[in-house]
Amino acid sequence: MASEEKGPRPLGELERLVMEQLWAAPAALTVREVHERLSRTRELAYTTVMTVLDRLAKKKLTERERDGKAWRYRAAAPREELAADLMRDALNSAGDRREALVRFVGQVSDEEAALLRDALSRLDSQG
Predict the structure, then answer these.
(1) Taking the CB of residue 82, how many other CB atoms lie within 10 A of it?
(2) In this structure, how many other beta carbons lie within 10 angstroms of the beta carbon of residue 22?
(3) What is the rounded CA–CA span in Å between residue 50 and residue 11?
(4) Minimal CB count within 10 Å: which of 2, 11, 64, 111?
(5) 88: β partners
(6) Could you read off the pLDDT of 32-46 as tens digits, one per residue?
């Protein structure tokens, strides 16, 4: 039996908070730097942040490089790419893709609908 390749999983709350710090940073951050930034608004153990960053690296959502004894982490891709991957994965597992798209489009705001129309128009003009 072949194992099925699974797409990205939605981020948990803490993973999302950590990723937001990485996306906002102009350069790669150490565990300590991420911990310090998150500690401004919530109480977290340093080891918790270290575990989350390690888990994100194993999921290939971050890239890390050695800096002396520490690791420096950066987001592997922009947040928009992760969002697109999650939407594509959800659509792939929806069963009836057409119905899933119809329901999704039925829930978007007028502004989001205009953005979708613009994106489809740009794709049409490229093809």
Answers:
(1) 19
(2) 22
(3) 16
(4) 2
(5) none
(6) 999 999 999 999 999
DSSP letters for 47-87:
HHHHHHHHHHHHTTSEEEEEETTEEEEEESS-HHHHHHHHH
Rounded Cα–Cα distance for residues 75 and 61 (Å)? 6
CA–CA distances in Å: residue 117 to residues 71, 100, 123, 124: 43, 17, 10, 10
Name the percent of the chain in helix, strand, coil, to the closest 5: 55, 10, 30
**Entry pTM:** 0.78
State the residue for tokens 């948990």.
Answer: 12
Residue range 74-84: average pLDDT? 94
Residue 6's contacts (CB-CB under 8 Å, 6 or more residues apart) are: 89
